[in-house]
Amino acid sequence: MTAITPACQLLERQSEEYRDWLWVAPPMDPWLDDHPGPVWSADLAICQAWRARGATVYDDLSPAIAAVPGAVLFWPKAHALGEWWLLALCAQLPKGTRLQIVGENQGGIRRVLKVLAALGLGCRKLDNARRCTLFETRLGPVGLVPDDAWTSFEALGLRLVSHPGVFGHGKLDAGTRLLLDNLPASSEFAGRKVLDVGCGDGVIAAWLAARGAEVTAVDSSLFAVEATRRTLAANALSGSVLQGDVYAALPEDARFDAIISNPPFHQERAIDRGPAARLIREAPGHLEKGGRLTLVANAFLPYPDLLEAAFGGFDILADDRRFRVYRAIRRR
């Protein structure tokens, strides 16, 4: 099949067959369907798609990877996340394994040269086209380990554990702060079943758990799932953390007193409102009668129509012109 993403269009030009190579953090692209090989990704949708066609899927942060002739790393928008993937590959694959790194120029792929030099790894440029560049190196031992990428910081009286692959890495997002500032008094959450959709580094889940809520948190990113687990543990709090697409990981009969979310609307640089739309549309089916959906979103996003259709009405709890906090109640 023909490649549709710029990075895969550049790979399509190469003479390398990529037979049995490891694909690392790849995009959704039909060209990859014709290149069998294992995949390593922290993205649930990617893992599900590759697993559906019978590929070997590594969906752990430190998997035992079988020997491969080479690997291709798709450089992410987050520069620090790309560094983590490099460290992880050096830790998981044998010395001397070929590694090609491809990415869009506006996504910072050219910085790979400095990153590899700092790690003591050589590099050569193989090609550039479609506003992308392709580099190649060989893996070897480096002085850092992947776990060094994890950081922690204090916010709202909590210790938050963060990773470069997680939304708002290393800081409290302004929208999340506005959301938490406008939630009910802490006593209203004691003993209540609450769901955090798109949990990120776990700040919402930990804030709720600290107020006595019985918390379930979900995110499609394995980095976010691990970050939330670490955040809860760092604060001696309990909660269930699941990897899943919006409500997909929950039991069919799961019902909550509240759903609270700062839902994502970006996939890399593209806007993707699909998860937030499903969050709103399907929320009544996961709430007890009288249960509330409270979410924060950029003010320009068209969520009022979705909330009106799903709940028959909603309130705006806060609006600072950049973000809005919405609340909708299941009446029936």
How would you characterize the overall build of this protein?
- There is one protein chain.
- This protein is of the alpha/beta class.
- The protein folds into two domains: 6-146, Rossmann fold (3-Layer(aba) Sandwich), CATH 3.40.50.150; 150-329, 3-Layer(aba) Sandwich (Rossmann fold), CATH 3.40.50.
- The chain is built from nine helices and 18 strands.
- A seven-stranded mixed β-sheet has the order 3-2-1-4-5-7-6, sandwiched between helices. Strands 12-11-10-13-16-18-17 form a seven-stranded mixed β-sheet, with helices on both faces. A two-stranded antiparallel sheet has the order 8-9.
- Helix 8 (274-282) packs parallel to helix 9 (303-311).
- The model is unreliable at 266-272 (pLDDT under 50).
- Belongs to the methyltransferase superfamily. RsmC family.
Could you say what the CATH topology of the largest domain is called? Rossmann fold
Question: C-alpha Rg, in Å?
Answer: 21 Å
Mean pLDDT: 94
Question: What's the arrangement of strands in the largest beta sheet?
Answer: 3-2-1-4-5-7-6
Individual helix count: 9
Q: What is the helix content?
A: 25-40%
Task: List low-confidence stretches.
Answer: 266-272
Q: Tell me, what's the shape?
A: elongated
**Structural class assignment:** alpha/beta
The sequence of SSEs as H and E is HEEHEEHEHEEEEHEHEHEEEEHEHEE
CATH superfamily of the largest domain: Vaccinia Virus protein VP39
Number of strands: 18
Distance between the termini: 49 Å
Largest sheet: 7 strands, mixed
Tally the structural domains.
Answer: 2
Domain Methyltransferase small N-terminal: 58-139
Enzyme class: transferase
Function: Specifically methylates the guanine in position 1207 of 16S rRNA in the 30S particle.
Protein name: Ribosomal RNA small subunit methyltransferase C
